[in-house]
Design a protein that fits this description.
Layout: E1 3-7, E2 10-12, E3 18-25, E4 33-39, E5 46-51, E6 58-60, E7 68-73, E8 78-83, E9 92-99, E10 110-111, E11 115-119
Length: 121
């Protein structure tokens, strides 16, 4: 069964950090570009970051630049999203998705079930 599983979400205070993981089973992530998306309460899902398959270059939406870092560990078949200096507005369900392309572009082929990130004091 081909699936992506996110983990690492939780409750954190403003200014804190979390590291999200996106692990694949049934396929190898090094054949895919990987994106991270989030959906805040009452809002549509938005793409926040993506990492290319070939050159490992990461892309970020402006609201998270300088705070989040995407990386991939092909040996462990996992992609990470390190989130620092978290803000209230980072709250939401975070999803990872995989697309069988060299570079970040949709539509994505596989989606995880999501992990909740709550930033609250």
């Amino acid at each position: 069964q081909l699936q992506l599983v996110e983990s690492g979400g939780g409750l954190v205070q403003p200014g804190g950090s979390l590291r999200l993981s996106c692990a694949a089973s049934g396929f190898t992530l090094d054949h895919y570009a990987i994106g991270w998306f989030r959906q805040a309460p009452g809002k549509i899902r938005e793409g926040v970051s993506c990492i290319n398959r070939t050159d490992g270059r990461g892309y970020y939406v402006d609201s998270i630049k300088g705070r989040f870092t995407i990386s991939r560990d092909n040996a462990n078949n996992t992609v990470y999203l390190q989130m620092n200096s978290l803000k209230f507005e980072d709250t939401g369900v975070y999803y990872c998705a995989a697309v069988a392309k060299d570079y970040c572009s949709g539509p994505y082929d596989y989606w995880g079930q999501g992990t909740q990130v709550t930033v609250s004091s």
